[in-house]
Amino acid sequence: MVSRVIPVEAFDLVIFGGTGDLARRKILPGLYRRFIAGQMTDDSRIIGAARADLTDDIFRKSVAEAIEEFVPANRRDPKLIADFLARLHYVAIDAQGDGGWAQLKGLMRRNVVQAYYFSVAPALFGDLALRLKSHGIADDQARIVVEKPFGRDLASARALNATLAQHFHESQIYRIDHYLGKETVQNLMAVRFANILFEPLWKSEYIDHVQITVAETVGVEGRGAYYDKSGAMRDMVQNHLMQLLCLIAMEPPYHFDPDAVRDEKLKVIRALDPVGPLDIVRGQYLAGAGQGSYLDHCEDPTSRTESYIALKVHISNWRWKGTPFYLRTGKRLRARASEIAITFREPPHSIFDDAKGWRENVLVIRLQPDEGMNLMVMIKEPGPGGMRLAQVPLDMTFADALGPEAEDVPDAYERLVMDVIRGNQTLFMRGDEVEAAWAWTDPIIAGWEQRGDRPQGYDPASSGPEDALMLMHRDGRRWREIRE
Ligand code: BG6
Fold this sequence. Notes:
- By secondary structure, the chain is of the alpha/beta class.
- The protein is 35% helix and 19% strand.
- It has 16 helices and 15 strands.
- A nine-stranded mixed sheet has the order 14-13-12-11-7-10-9-8-15, sandwiched between helices. Strands 3-2-1-4-5-6 form a six-stranded parallel sheet, sandwiched between helices.
- The chain is globular, with a radius of gyration of 24 Å.
- The model has no long low-confidence stretch (mean pLDDT 93).
- Bound molecules: 6-O-phosphono-beta-D-glucopyranose.
- The site of 6-O-phosphono-beta-D-glucopyranose has 3 residues, from loops.
- 6-O-phosphono-beta-D-glucopyranose binds next to loops.
């Protein structure tokens, strides 16, 4: 297969928080990779903006170090790195004052795409938006990119949307959920809507249940202060798992077009039932394997914030009535593994006397690591001795199926930043979508806060709290094993 990299239009991309962690780890190394892939035109520029008083050269040096640290050696070419660095500039900026804005204005060009990446605390979004407009910097076509967390509840998300809307039109606002930039997440749409095979079966008549798992091995160390105010529900479910659920559950959009896709996702979010206490399990990891517990990592030794959550969710619409979606995500679990498993129902009638070996068909979509799909199907167990059934996987690991090109798959951030430049909002969340997600999340969180529920402890490197197993067992179902 031949890679088809099409250069995007010339751009000036300003990264507010250009010296911060996300810029260093993801955004700038990602831009370097897009540059070496030939996607950046010669006259495109990246402008780092942050509080510190740095020269262009010092900023370039720090970006060179980030590339050294976060780009694999086989992609690091000194000549290409130097060419990339030559496209970088730096402006010291005061987000809440007047310092630096005149210089930024002097740098920005009118005849290229302007994009402004707000890689800063959400409290500064309004200040930046206001100043980009009041200093006459951002034009009517300019795009702003905002990171999560987008609010911490419906009220704060609404306030943020309202603040941004004072200065920018919705078509200019790109709200990032980096899960939407992951290759396999987009593959969910290709699998569903580019094959005739699955869609006729894609409903509660044929699907028994869906499991969505995002398991991590890392704990919250280093991020304890942020995480403790958030927890797994706000940090992962309201956004990433919700997006996965939407892509699985939504109706076919009439076109792969930003509003057509987002309209369908919004309908799913609005159809989510409230979740009662019996359908929620929250956990906190304990100490073990030489590492501290959740409580050791956050500032409040009595914290009730969850580092794990499992939920049983129902979607009240024709397609999904009667098919529960089980979601779970947590830190410090057995393996880093994210997958969606769709378990089909039994055939209506078995023609085999001895159906002992029978198991359900399961379509497993592995998001990371080892992206691919696995369809568990029944076959005859080989050999003599009558008709015995066995379950085998039809396994497709994308790296095997696609060859070396699969290794070149852009990281989520690379793809999303390029989509901003292209002006394509399909993989970004619309304001009403974020608000609807919070509207569903808020009462669930309020419920456990009012009850004063304490999360259950779970062992590090386990698959989560015991009660999470019960959430499935009592329905006669079981979680798939968490493994890499
Ligand atoms: C982030 C969360 O949005 O996603 C983190 O804030 C989490 O807590 C991360 O670790 C997971 O992303 P990924 O791409 O590693 O699955």
